[in-house]
């Protein structure tokens, strides 16, 4: 940078020491670039300004102004920040915990008194955080090189108006013109983040609807994140280059505004969008390259599309994830057209009673089903590339067909399906991970594992989930000598683990969770045969905790060879380092 870092750091230390005398702040470096953290003191602000104006500091390109939060007494933040105008070559600016009602003139004004630019020629990123008393976001649209803008916890802002963009005269920048001679607002901005703005109701477009002259707005914006703006009901609709859109806790009308004219979207994530019954049809029709859709906790969502139309679904989609949408009852039966689909998950959507056909979706690698279906989707056995199949919390599922055609399947989980009474057959020897259980509670014993006995030399990870009646583990487990991981959960009737557990000679990790009557571990002889066991973790098994309470901290003979032992939150032994 052509500056003397040592001199800068000495100056920073002087400012920091004075700040500490007020008990308000400190100074610290950020990477190779010092970051100034000023304080609530006008005298200190003058000295800091003198330092910032020093010729040797002109190369400092990253600057942050931070106030302590939770301050009391007289607040003179506006005077302090007004006196801390940085040099015009600044590249990064952060203002945090500022309690003034308006930002300083050197942010709000495009030009200085001599006709020169303040920050505009070099500024690449701006972060405004916890500026709770400000009612207006400063005009920033004319910043010709600004790439990142993040605004968080500006609690008093109710509207982002046209002043946010500036005007189309190009004032403050010689490089703010877009294509075809039109002026551009935020010409270089790549990422825009708005978070935790509880009073924000309206975000206006750059021009009012009645204005006839329009320029280019956000021509380079690739990523837009809006989170925890619960009252936001309107937003702009002009994002010509947007590729990533993340929406969390806003009104559906604002989301529909934003998505109405998108044509370049690749990734869409939606969380807790109220009053959203289905996704806008044009979102699929206009974004031919859309690859991923994630939808979470949209309580009013009833369908992905307003009607069934093969053309409406983007054939480019690779990942679809829908979770915790209680009213979801319909997914168009057009998945067979998605020839690029690799991952499809529907998780905790209890009102979805019919799953769309996946016949011929040869590209599918991962499938998660957790909903109200009685039968698995048509065409499951045609998905010969499927690697992972998870079937969780399906209270109406009656049976699972043989899975003999899924030759590539390496992980299978079938858990908490209370109407199931047996396991599927035909599992491939490629299967390495298996989680099963939580079946019909009228069964007095765990379903037979005879259909998976051929996996005894290949299965590496096994999770068993029981229920209240069960008082024993399936004996067949003792033959799975390749197991490295065993998880036993909710076998409430078991009081002691069987001796044959010692036959699992490859076992490295043993987890025992919520087996409320379990008291006894296998004998010393059985445990010592587990020569490769590295971790023993026991949770939610209070009788085990009581049984070994007096021995905690001692060298238990049966566990002496295990490097890591934890019972509940107590780490009994840790020799893993």
UniProtKB/TrEMBL annotation:
<dbReference type="InterPro" id="IPR056789">
    <property type="entry name" value="LRR_R13L1-DRL21"/>
</dbReference>
<dbReference type="GO" id="GO:0006952">
    <property type="term" value="P:defense response"/>
</dbReference>
<protein>
    <submittedName>
        <fullName>Disease resistance rpp13-like protein 1</fullName>
    </submittedName>
</protein>
<dbReference type="Pfam" id="PF25019">
    <property type="entry name" value="LRR_R13L1-DRL21"/>
</dbReference>
<keyword id="KW-0611">Plant defense</keyword>
<keyword id="KW-0433">Leucine-rich repeat</keyword>
<feature type="domain" description="R13L1/DRL21-like LRR repeat region">
    <location>
        <begin position="59"/>
        <end position="154"/>
    </location>
</feature>
<dbReference type="InterPro" id="IPR032675">
    <property type="entry name" value="LRR_dom_sf"/>
</dbReference>
